[in-house]
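Milestone M4 deliverable, item 7.
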Amino acid sequence: MLRGELMNRKGILAFGVVFLISLTLTFLNIKIANSQGIILEAKYVEHISIDNINDPVWDEAVPVIVPLSAQSRITAPRGGGAIKSLTARALHDGEAIYLKLTWKDDTEDVSFLRQEDFRDSVAVQFPVKLDNGKLPSVCMGQLGAAGNIWHWKADWNEEYLNGFKDIDNVYPNMMVNFYPREEEEIFYPAKSVGNLYSVDKRTTPVENLISTEYGTITPSAEQNVIGKGEWKNGEWTVVMSRSFTTPYESDAQFGVGKRTAISFAAWDGSAGERDGLKSTSTWIDLEISEPLPQKSPLDTIVVFTLFAAIVIFVVFIIIRTVT
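Output delivered:
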């Protein structure tokens, strides 16, 4: 066999293999992260239950593995970095966006009451506005280009699910002096003004925040992000959701067919991570897809038959070429 003919057959074989792989990935709707960046797609589904973390509807979402690293503003080892990656999924029902985040963590850190305890947590950040497609600093925004942050906290999640925890839950045998007027609201100024760190009844484990640079993070005017978390078998699973639009300028706004960006941060409490000691990502694209037209069973059969016919034909050509 001539060398040129052999090289030609190898080329046809390689093309056939690549074509089959590409065809299969397209048929199965599997996306690959490329050098241009990672894209997280929020597909449309009719209904999602925020209370059921393991809702089968999440099988419709395309998982994206997001690399994390110690945040760059503080040099190691003080910059965090215990969590190396997380898996993100996104869906929408035409009115609200839903996020599902999972990551490995050997310990469940749900207490923040003792000085030596630090909670597990995870956060997502969106640009409040995109100025001609230009993103704000991923380090919690910048002046004139704010970031909207949703911060889920394991201790808030514990209180949301199982009730308020106070210092006497950690130290049941503690002794306390007598405090006058301790039953009056004025005795608890932070609680009386609605400070989120002082409430004794959680309506959500997620804090909605606005930031115009690191060190400027502030609770948003409306705490409108809902969520839930679960630790099982060395892995956290957290879901968060909010309606597409709100009347607040400090909130990121979403919509069907629109594209924005999202970044991630995660903390491992048992590794001593808190505040700036965390693992962070870069910005990645977030696409909110249009609902796909409904397909009849006949359409599915036709598409599958066509796909199988093309695969058989390509395989036949490859076999004829190399033999």
